[in-house]
Amino acid sequence: MFNAHRFRIDRRSMLKSSLSLLAGGAVGRVAEAQPEIKNVNLASSPSSLKITDMRYAVIVKPGPSPCVLIRIDTNQGVYGLGEVRDIAGPQYAMVLKSRLLGENPLRIDYLFQKIAQFGGNARQAGGVCAVEMALWDIAGKVYNIPVYQMLGGKWRDEIRIYADTTESMDPAEYGRRAKERKEMGLTWMKMDLGINVLDGIPDTVMRPPGQSNWEQHVQPNLFVAAEVTDKGIDRLCEYVAAVRENIGYDMPLSMDHLGHIGVKSVIRLGKAYEKFNLEWMEDVIPWYYTDLLKEITEASPTPTLTGEDIYRIEDFETLCREHAVDKIHPDLATSGGILQTHHIGDMAFKYGVPMAMHFAGTPVSCMASVHCAAATRNFLALENHSLDVPFWQDLVTGVEKPIINQGYIRVPDTPGLGVALNDDELKRHLKPGAGYFEPTPMWDEPQSWDDALFS
Question: Which domains are seen in the chain, by residue range?
């Protein structure tokens, strides 16, 4: 006897089975096209991750120093490393601790906006940027991917570095030292050359006598009445000529630390240096004099560059939009950290402005810069101040050594920033009297109620 009810049930079961088989086949084909993602750290629980502590260590090395390393700890044992800008104190970072405790470190943009108001130009941004680096390091470790991948992927596998040449009052010796740098494998050079080399040579620099140290080094260039004479310019050109004779013209040569001189002297130097084909003259006057920078840039055949002391992306955009300089030069430990510096590069690309990067710290901040540079299209070269520091690369482990190899740094594919601390080596270079990532309960509570910027 025909059972209509049973037929409907069997037919429904058969359809379900067929659909399941079809769905399974479709999933199988997708799996073949897109391999299973296996790099998520299943030992972590991102949604319940919380910041539990922040500590620091102060490292001393030759060159720009001391350097403050911070470590942000979490409730799941994952930690992140960051670095305060060179020659800045730990207080810039530690004042932020009370704003971070209990927060999920993976909310990077939210936390950056929460602490951004406590940053400022030059070293004042060091704490905010150190925290931002450490948050990216945590995120990379949690998801088991390098930081550059979270920025959209890399444009390059190696990061070109450029480096200063040690100075000499003798042009011939300066040239020989530049040649030694090139023999190290460098493909980009920078020389510090300012009016200090003219000290004691009559009729080379015109300026009022008896100026204080503050006037000569802190007061903006425009207000000290210092101008270089023709004799002074000729002497400065001897140094550049000596360097070019030793390294040739097949590699870029940049210049920094011209000294506190006036706008017209900068323009005259830019014209005198034209024959040496410099890649740029750096920080010729304070960056915030946009119109005067533009005047120099338009009048000088030698390109101009600035940016290592700028914190806000809006200020970089003003320079780029007005084409007040030919190139920009953020220091990631001042310019808002990894993501903001990447945004600065993208913004500058829109205006046709290339981006080099300033850096003078330990391998921790160096690797943060490397990841940013790898993911930023208009990047040129990254500075390094530690070619003569024998223990510099020994401060960290987990990264390919030598870190700087024939003028390049290999972009690491390991999670986060890609480095761990070499505790024994770091302890050998601690600032005298400083501890090594000791507890910091004194920074657990806010020091003032200053989070509200408007009513």
Answer: 46-145+436-443 (3.30.390.10)
**H-helix segments, 95-165:** 97-100, 108-115, 126-143, 147-150
Q: Which two tokens stand for residue 356?
A: 């080099």
pLDDT band at 452 (very low <50, low <70, confident <90, very high): confident
Burial of 114 (0-12, 13-18, 19+ CB in 10 A): middle
**Cβ contact 67:360 at 8 Å:** no
Q: What angle do CA 75, 151, 36 make, to 5 degrees?
A: 75
SS3 169: coil
Which amino acid, 360? A
- The residue written with tokens 């390991």 in the block is 414
H/E run at residue 7: helix 4-33
DSSP letter (8 states) at residue 167: P
**pLDDT of 423 over the 80 cut:** yes
**Full DSSP string of 364-416:** HHHHHHHHHHHT-TTEEEEEES-TT-TTGGGGEESS-SSSEETTEEEPP-SSB
Residue type at 127? Answer: G
pLDDT > 60? residue 176: yes
Rounded CA gap, 394 and 399, in Å? 10
Cis peptide upstream of residue 402 (ω within 30 degrees of 0): yes
30: how many CB neighbours lie within 10 A of its CB? 9
pLDDT in tens, 342-388: 999 999 999 999 999 999 999 999 999 999 999 999 999 999 999 99
How large is the average pLDDT for residues 234-246? 98
The DSSP output letter for 135 is H
Indicate the SS3 state at residue 373.
Answer: helix
Q: Take residue 288 and report the two structure tokens written for it.
A: 């915030």
Alpha carbons 110 and 100: distance in angstroms, whole number: 11
